[in-house]
Amino acid sequence: MTVERDAASLFERMRLVIALTEVNSRHLRGESRRAGAEIELACEARDGVSPEGTSHIEQLRERLGEVESALRAIESERERLANELARLDSRASSETQGGWQ
């Protein structure tokens, strides 16, 4: 590998690691939102069902569904980035012995 290609590969690896860190941070925030919605839903169910409560339960279920959908998208993005990083590392290690692993 040339010095320029080494530098480009290192830069790309850093970009992927930073992106994965950001995705993991978003995932943790999403997990917290999901837990909050689940707790609120459990409290509403525990407190009994009134016409007002039924409406609130539906809102909470909708919010929970949105959070779960967002988490699935984040997990898909994380998988894509992790695969891209693995391919980059594999390519780098096959081109030079040792690589950065």
Strand content range = under 5%
- Oligomeric state of this protein: single chain
Radius of gyration over C-alpha positions, nearest whole angstrom: 22 Å
- Tally the structural domains: 1
Q: What about the largest sheet?
A: none
Query: What's the helix count?
Result: 2
Secondary-structure element string: HH
Structural class label: mainly alpha
The helical percent reads: over 70%
What separation lies between the terminal Cα atoms?
16 Å
Give the tally of β-strands.
Answer: 0
Shape: rod-shaped
pLDDT < 50 runs, ≥5 residues: none
Average pLDDT across residues? 87
Keywords: Coiled coil
List the helices and strands and how they pair.
Elements: H1 3-46, H2 51-95
Helix pairs in contact: 1-2
